[in-house]
Design a protein that fits this description.
single chain; alpha/beta; two-stranded antiparallel ribbon; 6 helices; 25% strand; 30% helix
C-alpha cells in the first residue's frame, strides 16, 4: 500500500515542478523525502497526494501541497538556519523545514490535541529528534531561541504580529498570511532590514485558518 501511496505522491511532486510551483531542488528533494501521507488522519492517506487541504483534528487543516511549496520557496531556507514555525498543525511543514535546514526546528502550537497529533506523525516520519514543539500562543513567537533567520506562520493574522518582527535577525524573513478571519488573506513576505525597519512584499491571495492569540485574532 505504501509503495502505491508513494508513487502517487511522486506524480504530485512532478506536477508541482512542471507547473513552476516547486522551483528549487532543495524543496523538491524535501517533498520527495517527506510525503504528506505520514501526516494525515487515518483513512485519509489515499487522498494525501491530492493538491487540496485535508482535515486534521481540532477543526484545523493540513495545507494543500502547492501552498506549502510556495511558502517554502519564498522562505529561501538554507542549511543551518535558525527557523521558527508558528502553527505546528499536522507537523508536515515542520518536517519539511527540518529536512531542508538539516538542523532543529522550533514550532509553536496553541492546541494540545494538535501538538500530540504532530508529535506522533513526526515520530512516524522519522523527524521527532529534529523538532521541538512548544504549546503556547504563537503570536508571541518563542523568545528563548530568538533571533531567527526565518519565521513561517501557517495561519492567517489580522496584521503582522510585532513580536515576530522583533524576533527576526537583521536580514531575516517572516512568511505570514494577513487579512480576513476566514477564507481570504494575502501572503506577506516581511524582511527585517539592517536598520530595524521592515520591507513587505505581497504574494497574492491565500486561504488559511485564523491565527488565534494576543497579537492575532481573539479565540
Amino acid at each position: 500500500m505504501q509503495d502505491k501511496l508513494y508513487r502517487r505522491w511522486v506524480r504530485t511532486v512532478d506536477a508541482l515542478v512542471r507547473e513552476g510551483i516547486i522551483k528549487s531542488d532543495k524543496v523538491k528533494q524535501a517533498f520527495l523525502k517527506v510525503p504528506r501521507y505520514f501526516f494525515v488522519l487515518p483513512g485519509h492517506a489515499k487522498w494525501a497526494h491530492v493538491d487540496e487541504p485535508l482535515p486534521i483534528p481540532a477543526g484545523q487543516t493540513i495545507s494543500a501541497p502547492h501552498m506549502v511549496a510556495i511558502m517554502l520557496e519564498l522562505a529561501q531556507l538554507e542549511e543551518g538556519m535558525n527557523v521558527l514555525e508558528i502553527g505546528t498543525g499536522s507537523g508536515w511543514n515542520t518536517a519539511l523545514i527540518a529536512e531542508i535546514i538539516k538542523t532543529e526546528v522550533y514550532t509553536v502550537e496553541r492546541i494540545p490535541e494538535l501538538a500530540e497529533f504532530a508529535r506522533k506523525n513526526l515520530e512516524k516520519a522519522g523527524y521527532a529528534d529534529k523538532v521541538h514543539i512548544i504549546i503556547g500562543d504563537g503570536t508571541k513567537g518563542f523568545p528563548p531561541k530568538a533571533p531567527y533567520d526565518r519565521i513561517i506562520v501557517t495561519a492567517g493574522a489580522p496584521k503582522v504580529p510585532e513580536p515576530l518582527i522583533e524576533q527576526l535577525k537583521p536580514g531575516g524573513k517572516l512568511i505570514i498570511p494577513v487579512g480576513k478571519y476566514h477564507l481570504w488573506q494575502e501572503l506577506y513576505e516581511v524582511t527585517r532590514l539592517e536598520d530595524g525597519s521592515v520591507k513587505t512584499t505581497r504574494h497574492g491571495g491565500v486561504a488559511f485558518v485564523p491565527l488565534i492569540g494576543e497579537h492575532g485574532w481573539e479565540g
